[in-house]
Amino acid sequence: MNDLAIDEESRSLLRRVVERQAYRQLMAANIRAHGLKFVPEVEVKIPLVQDLEHSLRILREVERLYARLGGQDLANAVRAQMDRIPYPSSRLELATCLVLCDRAEQIAAEGYRDSACADFAAIARSLLSMDRTSTREGERLFTEFCSEAGNRPAAQQMFNRWLAIALVSLGRPGTPGDARAVALKLRSKRCADSVREFLAGVKPLVERWQLVLPPATSLGVELPAETLGKSA
To answer: How many CB atoms lie within 10 A of CB 157?
Structure first.
């Protein structure tokens, strides 16, 4: 889909899609940059910086696409959403955040890898090619922390916090724009499908960590039916 050949409805919708991607990318970049202070070992800092650099390169491509679609000041367009994103307060919370938010980012990218917008499809494929060494290290660290029963209440709190944020980053299921993006082949699946896929991938981690998926009502996010249980 040549961005100069699409109608204004499609262009406007694609701008909103790009804004959502910018939100995910800016969140990932800011959190990785912030998290550097929690990592004392140089050999662990290096892959975190490499992942940060990859996130920023992708964000640059997102900004260029947004400008070609007639958008202006992408950072300002997502500012209100970004202001609601907290920062991790410890190395363990950074680990939880990376594991969940990276997984959401990959699920979202899978839906765009064959987008009718070739430039956006290229961005999605670049996202999927990221090595994410720092995320794998975070998962190992968090798994080790959860192996001690006394640590699990704190682990559950961190998990709940970032689970909600990761779910929000996947978009609101069931909106007209959600269905229209699929109809126009801007992405291959609806938000509800991405949420279900994300949660299906998280469940084995929850079991390994000996945590629980919280009830949907406690997260304060809108979910498709029958994704999280009514009680934890």
So the answer is: 12
Of 31, 69, 63, 32, residue with least CA distance to 48: 32
* Alpha-carbon gap, residue 193 to 82, rounded angstroms: 24
Picking from 110, 80, 104, the residue whose alpha carbon sits closest to that of residue 171 is: 104
Which CATH superfamily includes the segment(s) 8-219? Ferritin, core subunit, four-helix bundle (1.20.1260.10)
Of 20-29, 200-209, 216-225, where does mean pLDDT reach its minimum? 216-225
pTM higher than the cut 0.85: yes
CB 139 within 8 A of CB 204: no
Query: Tens digit of pLDDT for each residue in 161-216?
Result: 999 999 999 988 888 888 989 998 999 999 999 999 999 999 999 999 999 998 87
Q: What is the pLDDT of residues 46-104, one digit of tens each?
A: 999 999 999 999 999 999 999 998 888 998 999 988 888 999 999 999 999 999 999 99
- 109-124 burial, b if ≥16 CB within 10 A, otherwise e? bbbbbebbbebbbbbb
CB 121 within 8 A of CB 114: yes
Domain boundaries, the chain: 8-219
Residues ≥6 apart with Cβ < 8 Å to 227: 195, 196, 199, 216
